[in-house]
Amino acid sequence: MQKxxxxxxRLAGALATATLLASCxxxxxxxxPPSAEQLEWTATLAPDARESDRIVKGDRSTIDQWPxxxxxxxxxxxxxxxxxxGGTFVxxxxxLTAAHCFTGESRRVGDHWEWRPRSPLxxxxxxxxxxxxxxxxxxxxxxxxIHPDYQPTRKDSAGEWLGxxxxxxxxxxxxxxxxxxxxxSAGGDADSDRDGARAFVAGFGxxxxxxxxxxxxxxxxxxxxxxxxxxxxxxxxxxxxxxxxEVCGKQxxxxxxxxxxxxxxxxxxxxxxxxxxxSGGPLVALDTKDRTYQIGVVSFGFECAAExxxxxxxxxxxxxxxxxxxxxxxxxxxxxxxxxxxxxxxxLEAMARALGPTSGKLSLxxxxxxxxxxxxxVIHVTPRIDGRLxxxxxxxxxxxxxxxxxxxxxxxxxxxxxxxxxTIPDPDTAWMEIAPEAEGATVYAFVIPESVAFxxxxxxxxxxxxxxxEEKQPEREPVDFATRMLTEVANRSSAGGLADWAAAQASxxxxxx
Length: 513
Fold this sequence. Notes:
Elements: E1 5-6, E2 59-60, E3 69-75, E4 81-91, E5 94-97, E6 106-109, E7 112-115, E8 121-125, E9 138-146, E10 154-155, E11 161-162, E12 169-173, E13 183-185, E14 198-203, E15 217-221, E16 226-230, E17 236-243, H1 245-251, E18 262-265, E19 282-286, E20 292-301, E21 311-315, H2 320-327, E22 331-333, E23 340-342, H3 345-354, E24 362-369, E25 376-383, E26 387-395, E27 400-404, E28 415-416, E29 422-424, E30 441-448, E31 453-455, H4 480-492, E32 502-508
Parallel strand pairs: 4-16, 13-22, 23-31
Antiparallel strand pairs: 1-20, 2-17, 3-4, 3-8, 4-5, 5-12, 6-7, 8-9, 9-12, 10-11, 14-17, 14-19, 15-16, 17-18, 18-21, 19-20, 20-21, 24-25, 25-29, 26-27, 26-28, 26-30, 30-32
């Protein structure tokens, strides 16, 4: 087993000595709404986002979208200010981050960890551009508390690498933070990785773990004029599908992965991920009111955005009492997770199987016109129930495309009425044409409750109505979690069961008949 990557930039200085005591869990509190409305920021899958950089292939963020985000920095020997790890403001005087951010300047003493700094540590808050850090954004650190049971990545007796454990720490700042605090998951249903849901991660980290894109970015910090560097000058975020604990447990069995205290998230075939410099940053989910709450802390992985290399995150909820005992005012919530599918090939197939008995509620017909380069595909759909219509194409090689809704539609236009005839592309939509695949494909149509949405690499590009595919997707993952996710969402649907769900599928091409 290769050595896991820790997602912190190299640290050259550290800080004060501290100890922490573990404590037992208590009952989860009721959800406590934030003081301000959550901004509408979660459309991270816009076409231009797929080509942006840092948080590998992520989307440029604003601090209004991540108001609780914190960045750790310290001064190098040459005077450069290095930004090396992320974090979140979880209390007025406390920032939550990863324990491994302090590797090299911390040591175990008896039953606790001590950290002895060689240079002052500071926290940056309230900015999405590290080149603009006024005095009001900088907080000095006067204590670092590393979880007493933290275990760094290490080799076992056979010389194989093991992943870290209890990779979590708290940083105390010298004055009160007046901005928003992150809401933290109290566990239970709020830890939505058990249903294979989506999550979001943010950071100022690198765009790759090696090669040209792995270079540190240098810049001048204004108004001081000091030299600074980071994986990225700007804050980025991306969406990642989470994997259920049993799936991650099998994949990372050699690393002693612990589903009770860890979460893994990412795409099986890579493409977007957290990376070096993102360590300690937040992994957040959304509740049914589109508000963020933090479920994880960026911990380790292998290569950034590589195949079969989902990132590993420290699960926050098991450390609730430890955090509460230390900070006093951290906010834990029993959030109700959003009802969203992360659409993948196995999800589509699982849904089609589970919704087979509902096929009479939805008709789907495919019409092929022209030939050669002029060949076109027209999709005709007629639902017999009200709801949200979604139409995908799954190709022979496993690539998924979405045809309805599209990025030029309002969300309300995806809602259909019983008996409404929908033609894709619409005859009046001159910019959209669908060229059929030479080897054929299967088209899936679903009508789902209005309260349920799909997410994934599925928002189409404007020109061709095609998404950026997940490469090499035909190698399937187990469908157990997709089926369970479907069942869970169906149980939460307004009518109960599958009364307000419908599915249909049709194939075309040489093997269709």
